[in-house]
Amino acid sequence: MTKARGRKDKGALPEAGRKPRRTEVRNGRRGGKALAVEERRIQVELFAKTAESKPETAKARGERDTGRTTVPRPRAPKFASTSTRSGSAEMESVCAGLDVALERVAQNHGASGPNHQTVEDVKACWPSLRPKLVAALLEGAYRPGDIRRVWIPKAGGGERGLGIPDVVDRVVQEAVRAVLGPRYESRFHANSHGFRPERSCHTAIAQAKEFLKTGYGWVVDIDLKDFFNRVHHQRLLATLQRDVGDARVLNLIGRMLKAKVVLPDGVRVNNETGAPQGGPLSPLLSNIVLDELDRELERRGLRFVRYADDCNIYVRSRRSGERVMASLTRFIEKRLRLEVNAEKSAVAAPHERHFLGFSLNRKEDGEVEVNLSERSKRRLRQRVKDLTPRNSGYSMGLVIARINEYLKGWAGFFGICTGCVERTLKGVDAHTRRRLRAMKLKQRKRKRAMLGYLVKLGASKERAGRQLYGGRKSIWKLAHTPAVEGALNNSYWSKQGLLGSAALWKASSERLAISAPEQMTLCLG
Description:
This protein has helices spanning about 1-10, 35-55, 60, 90-95, 100-105, 120-125, 125-140, 165-185, 200-215, 235-240, 245-255, 280-300, 320-335, 375-385, 395-415, 420-445, 445-455, 460-470, 475-480, 480-485, 490-495, 500-525, and strands at about 25, 30, 145-155, 160-165, 220-225, 260, 270, 305, 310-315, 345-350, 360, 370. With about 525 residues, it is an alpha+beta fold.
C-alpha cells in the first residue's frame, strides 16, 4: 500500500523545482498543450467578446444590405432567484385588486378547476377567505393549486391542451394581470394585436392590407409549434425581473408556471416549461415572451403583423422571404428557445395563406381583397352541417334559431371581408336551405306523407308525385328536385325566420365600415 502511494506521489512531484500547474482535461483525457486555469479563463472571455462584437451581416439576417450600421441586439436575459430592488409594493396592489378580480372571473362563467370549486362557492365564502388569502400573499406563503388539463379540437386538426386553474388561482392571476398589464401595454410593439385592449384581428388585417398596398406582395408565415407549452420559464422570469421589483410577485408567477397538471385520467405531471392556456395571466405572459421577437423584427427593419403566436412578415420577393425565414428560424430556436413548425410555416403569396381566418389578395390596381381562407370556408359549411342533423328530434324552429345565432356571431367577425366573399356566402345559404328541406322530408318518413305535405304547400300533385316516385332517390337528392324547391322556396324560409349569411355579412360590413378609419389610425399609429 505504501509502495503504491509512493509511486503516485513521485509522479506528482514538480520537475526542476517548478510550481505545479493545473491542466485542462479534454473529452475525459489529458493531452495537448496544458493551459493554466487563469490563462484559460482569460482566453474564454476574450473569445466571447470577439464573438459578440462581430457584426451580423444584412445578408445573414435576410435583409437588403443598405450599408447602414445595425442596432446591436440586446443580451439574453438571465433570471436571479431574488430581485435586486427593494421597497416595491406591487404585491400590496395585487391584494387591493382581489375584489375586482373576483367579479371579472365571475363574468367569464368559467369551469371549475381540479378542486371542483365553482365561482359561486368561492363568492359564498369570500368574506372569510379574503383575509387569509391576503395574508398568505403578503407573506409569500401562497401556493397555487394544480391545473386541470382539458383537450379541445383544433380547427386545423389535432387537439389543443387548455389548463384550467382553480377559481381562487384565477382570481389571483387576474389581480396580477391588472397590476402588470398596464405597465407592459405601453411598451408592447404597435404591430402586436393579440390579447390587447382596443386591438383585435380586425386591426391586424387592416395593417396587413397597408403593407400589401405598398408593394410588399410576399408573406413569410411563421407558425410556432405548441408555443404555449414551450415557453422557457427562466427566460420569462428574467424578462419580468427587469420591470417587476417585488420578489414576492416574481416568486408567485414562478410558482404558477410550475404548478402541476392533472391529466383527464387523474395523473399529476410536473410542468417544466410552458404557460398553459386557460388562465387570465397566460395571454400577458405570451406577449411578454414574444415582444423580444417584435423588437428583433423592428431592429431588422421588417414589416410584420403579429397576433399572439401567429406572425406574418411582408417582403417584396420570394428570395427575400426565404432569407428572412431561415434567419428568423435560427433566432427563434436558438435565442427564444422555441420551435418553428416547418410543416405549417411557408413563404408564399398572401392569398395562399390562412391568417386569422382570412386570405388577402392584392389586385393589379393596388387594391387589396379580404376573402375567407379555404379553412374558414370548410369550417362554415361543416358548422352548418352540424346544426342541421336529419335524424335529430329537434323542431324546425329550434334548428333555425340555432343557425341564426351562429351566423350572427360569424358575420360580426367576418364582416371586414370585401365584396369578393358574397358569391361564396350565397352558395352557403343555398346549401343551408337544402339541408333544411332534407330535414323536412325526413320528418315525414314516407313518400306518401311527403307528397301530401308538398301539395298542402301549393305544389302540383302530379308533378310532385312524378318526381318523388320516379326512381330510387335519396332524401338528399329529393331535397334538390324542382317540386320540393318550389314548395319550400326562399320566401317560405324567410317567413320561418331564417337569416342568410350573405345578408348578415352585408349588414355587418356596413356597420364596421363606420369604425374603419378609427381602427386604421390605431393600427398604423
